[in-house]
Structures are given as structure tokens and as C-alpha cells.
Amino acid sequence: MDIEARGLSRAFNPPKFAHGRAHTPLPVALMSGVATTFSLKRCGLRSSRLFPNYRQIMKFAFIGSGNMATALIGGLIKCGIQPSNILAINPNDEARKRTEKAFGIATSASAFPSLQRFDANVLAVKPQIAKEIAAALTPNPSASQLVISIVAGTRGADLTRCLGGHPCIVRAMPNTPALIGMSATGLVALGGIDIAARELASHVMGAVGQVVSFDDESKVDAVTTVSGSGPAYTFYFIDAIQEAARLLGMDDKQARTLTVATFTGTAQLATQSPESVSVLRERVTSRGGTTAAALELFDSHDLKPQSCAAYSQLTNAQRK
Fold first, then answer.
1. What one-character-per-residue DSSP string does 130-144 give?
2. How far apart (Å, rounded) are the C-alpha atoms in residues 112 and 99?
3. Average pLDDT for residues 203-211, to the nearest whole number?
4. Where are the extended beta strands (E) located within the chain?
5. How would you classify residue 80: left for phi > 0, otherwise alpha for psi between -120 and 50, otherwise beta?
6. What is the DSSP letter of 110?
7. Pairing state of beta strands 106-108 and 86-89?
8. Which of 41, 38, 45 is nearest to 117 (CA)?
9. What pLDDT is recorded for position 13?
10. 229 CB-side CA count, 13 A
């Protein structure tokens, strides 16, 4: 456990606690100020009506303020959430100062009972201390509060138990492109969640990119493999192509520019085209041509089966 992780763990154990389907970012109806009504059930919001000043009244607390948390904070502010309605908790003085300076939000070195005034608490800490910190939050959050966990590998049942049986939990797995507002996030709502809380979680995560919802928590392991770890695989192939470009006589800048632009343009084409990526690939592969020969070489080394095997191995490891 590193120094900051140990500090965050201690910050959540002060004596006073001894007593105590695909979505896009915030919907057009909310962004345009149209009143929207959500039901209040077992896990509802503080208010049953999101009226025109929605962006002024929603309040969010972040337990942890690392890269992913600050990406979400920045995304929410860009979507119209007022900085005064966001709190970030981190025991590290320098980290708090950076967060305050970057976003103009309030910060704290420890959790405290007033966490109950927030619509959602986002748990964004290191996996090795997640359960300890979740347990220290009791009696926070209140029974009606939403908890969004972006902690990798920590099961919802474990979080519920550590939070004293708290039912309103959503697990979300964003990835590092969240840092530039282009995350691919998988999300699953646990059993105690109603539609309003599920939608709120989707909108929070949608502040930094696209969100895909799942009904089965076991699918989060596959999300970790596909999109959570996906940037590492993508960087791996970018690096391989850059290396090939250098071996063909290009300098570093030329290799990087052409390779990254190719990946960016290809991803955008796949996003905007109604056709499958297989069809798109065939359109740039002339029969008997050099591109086809290169693809045949990939196939001769079982690149696709090996990739699938690696994904399966990682997913199985996640489930252990």
C-alpha cells in the first residue's frame, strides 16, 4: 500500500465515526432546463423533481481524488454542475490543493456525517483499501443515497456488506480516455436501485464519455477486459506499428503522426459508419494485394485467436 493509500485509509477512520443499454451525457431535456420527474422508491433521490435549476441543486461527493475522480469532476462541471456542489475527500494536502485550484471545489481531509447531504457519493479509491474505507463510511451514506463505485475488482456484495447493508450501489468501470472526456464505461446497478438512481449514475459517468449498462454484475469483469484494459492493448498495437514505421525509414515524429492519425481516423469511421468493421476492413483489402498479404500473415500467427484467448484469460483472472 503506498503512502497516499495509507493516508486515505486513516482519514476514513477518525474517532467520531465510532458513533456514528447505451447512455449519452446529461439528457437534452435536463440540459435545456425542461422539468423532469423521477420516482422515489427504496433508493430515490433527495428531490422527486429535477426542475430547471437541476444543475444548481445536484450535489456530489468524491471519496478519493485521483485521476479518474478528477476527470469525472471536470466532466460534471462542464455539464453544468456547480463547483460549490462538489466535494472531494483526500488526506493528501498537495492533492487537495491541486484539486481546489483546478476546479474551485471544496475538499476535505476526511469523511464526516454531512456526506448525507449529497445526492451521490462516488467511491474512487485504490482497490486494496476500498473495503476498509467503505466500512468506515458507516453510518454514511443514508439509506436513500446513491453510491457509485469505480473501484476495480471490488464486488457489489462486498461493498454492501461493508456499508452496513446499504442497497443503493452502482458499479462502474470507466477507462483512461475519461481523462479527455472519451471514456467507454460499463455500468451495472445492484438490486436495490430504482430507475431514478440508475439514470443518475448513468449521467454522472456519461459526463466523461459513453456508458453501456448491464443487468448482470458478472459482465463487469468482461468490461474490465474489453474497455478497462483496452487502452493498453490499443497502445500496444500503436507502438508496434510505430516501430514498423521506424524500421521502414521514418523518424519518430513521422511514425507517431501517421500511426496515431490512422487509429483516430479508423475509430471515427467505425463509429460513424452503419456498416460492421468486417465490411469496412474488406473495403480496404484488395484481393491478392499487399494489405491482404499482411492480414494473411497475421492470421498465420493466429493473431485473432490469441487475442481472444488473452481476453478470456484476463476475464477469468478477474473473477477469481
1. HHHHHHHHTTPSPTT
2. 19
3. 95
4. 22-23, 36-37, 49-50, 60-63, 86-89, 106-108, 120-123, 146-149, 169-173, 183-189, 209-214
5. left
6. S
7. parallel
8. 45
9. 45
10. 19
Q: What is each CA distance from 6 to 128, 138, 179, 199, 271, in whole angstroms?
A: 10, 19, 25, 33, 42
Q: Give the three-state DSSP class for 55.
A: helix
* Percent of the chain topping pLDDT 90: 54
More confident residue, 7 or 295: 295
Please state, for a pLDDT cut of 70, what percent of the chain lies above it.
80
Distance between CA atoms of 98 and 268, rounded to whole angstroms?
33
State the amino acid at position 69 in one-letter form.
A
Instruction: Supply the pLDDT for residue 54.
Output: 47
Q: List pLDDT tens digits, range 215-235.
A: 888 888 889 889 999 999 999
The answer to whether the Cα torsion of 258, 259, 260, 262 is positive or negative is: positive
The C-alpha cell at 202 is: 448513468
User: Mean of the pLDDT values across residues 183-203?
Assistant: 90
Residues with Cβ within 8 Å of 111's Cβ and at least 6 positions away in sequence, in order, are: 11, 12, 17, 63, 89, 136, 137, 140
